[in-house]
Write a structure and sequence with these properties.
The strands form three sheets. The protein has a seven-stranded mixed sheet with strand order 4-5-3-2-6-7-8, sandwiched between helices. The protein has a seven-stranded mixed sheet with strand order 10-11-9-12-15-14-13. A two-stranded antiparallel ribbon has the order 1-16. The relative contact order is 0.16. The chain starts with a strand and ends with a strand. The longest helix is centred in the C-terminal third of the chain and has 17 residues, at 323-339. It folds into two domains: 2-104 and 327-351, NAD(P)-binding Rossmann-like Domain (Rossmann fold), CATH 3.40.50; 136-321, Dihydrodipicolinate Reductase, domain 2, CATH 3.30.360. Mean pLDDT is 94; it is low at 346-352. It has eight helices and 16 strands. It is α/β, with parallel strands linked by helices. Its EC number is 1.2.1.11. It catalyses: L-aspartate 4-semialdehyde + phosphate + NADP(+) = 4-phospho-L-aspartate + NADPH + H(+). Residues 11-126 form the Semialdehyde dehydrogenase NAD-binding domain. Homodimer. Phosphate binds at residue 106.
């Protein structure tokens, strides 16, 4: 008789398997017991032949090619926008679903942009591609959407404090090298970043728009509107690089039409999926990136009334950019596709 192979597990390919997010994807698929029946690790030719462990087995990395996407159900991509654009049609034509971590398809009207805790229903609209939002957008969305559901946000202002991990493994290594060089009174290297990040801060170095906002800031504006289905939501963002290795932080100011009691906000966020409220006002203890590193939850704290506006709230968060800000969100999208049976089921049926 004819049955679908998906009952035996999902055939997964990771595009960009050797990067910081790709490595985390592999770990998360194992940690969360994702139903993988076959895992292909794809990267550039220079990484081909190396091995990475998965479930106690050494898997050999392959150079990406059209043939590599044959007999695959799901592709988790984190190799940059140009790579995703180059291979997207090949992946879709092969009958697989692409969950893409780059910015290549986020604002495409035909591509769902998903944070599973916020808009899981959008997954059903996919036409072979689903986009993973920007890391800062994901972390912010988890912290403010539960409040937005109670009282729609009228305006939000956010300042981000973004770690080196947002620029990848090379950037993280560079900050360490910069710190050593500066302490030895040597010239710090600046290959991943335009300026030294160690012992320094600077505005996010993505290209500036005509409005004076950088691309990273506009991602937060446009992506949040799309995910929340709130095209008129007023948002202003300032994104800053800080000398932290991993995990981003954000200071957020929210304005509502009516006052939003602080106690109610804390109660709502304490019950929100993917959020952990961390506050100790007596000891001035609130979320920190070194505690958020390696954690799945977004830590939220310092929730307080905005003294400049009767309908304003202030909050602070820290979250792991590589996990929930990238790899974990992608794996959760994959889990959603499996749960809701949104992966191909007929084109690749096999006879037994």
């Amino acid at each position: 008789m004819e049955v679908n192979h998906l009952s035996e597990g999902i055939r997964v390919a990771i595009l960009g398997a050797t990067g910081a997010v790709g490595t985390e994807l592999i770990q998360l698929l194992e940690e969360r017991a994702f139903p993988v029946s076959q895992l292909k690790l794809l990267a550039s030719p220079r990484s081909a032949g190396k091995t990475i462990s998965f479930r106690g087995e050494a898997l050999t990395i392959e150079a990406v090619s059209a043939e590599a996407f044959q007999d695959v159900d799901l592709v988790l991509a984190s190799a940059g926008g140009s790579t995703s654009k180059a291979w997207a049609q090949t992946i879709v034509d092969a009958g697989a679903v692409l969950v893409d971590n780059s910015s290549a398809f986020r604002m495409d009207e035909t591509v769902p942009l998903i944070v599973p805790e916020i808009n899981p229903q959008a997954a059903a609209q996919h036409q072979g591609i689903i986009a993973n939002p920007n890391c800062t957008t994901i972390l912010m969305g988890l912290a403010i959407f539960p409040l937005h559901q109670i009282q729609p946000i009228q305006r939000l202002i956010v300042a981000t404090y973004q770690s080196a991990s947002g620029a990848g493994a090379q950037a993280m290594a560079e900050v360490k090298a910069q710190a050593r060089a500066i302490l030895n009174e040597e010239t710090p290297p600046t290959d991943a970043f335009p300026y030294p990040l160690a012992f320094n801060v600077f505005p996010h170095n993505s290209p500036l728009t005509e409005q004076g906002y950088c691309q990273e800031e506009m991602k937060m504006v446009k992506e949040t509107r799309k995910i929340f289905d709130a095209p008129e939501l007023r948002i202003s963002a300032t994104c800053i690089r800080v000398p932290v290795l991993r995990a981003h932080s954000e200071a957020i100011n929210l304005e509502f039409a009516e006052p939003f009691p602080v106690g109610k906000a804390k109660e709502v966020l304490s019950q929100a999926p993917g959020v952990e409220v961390r506050e100790d006002w007596e000891n001035n203890y609130f979320p920190m990136p070194n505690e958020a590193t390696g954690k799945d939850e977004v830590f939220v704290g310092r929730i307080r009334q905005d003294i400049s506006h009767p309908c304003g709230l202030e909050l602070w968060l820290s979250g792991d950019q590589i996990r929930k800000g990238a790899a974990l969100n992608a794996v959760q999208i994959a889990e959603l596709l499996v749960k809701d049976q949104l992966l191909p089921t007929t084109e690749k049926a096999v006879s037994v």
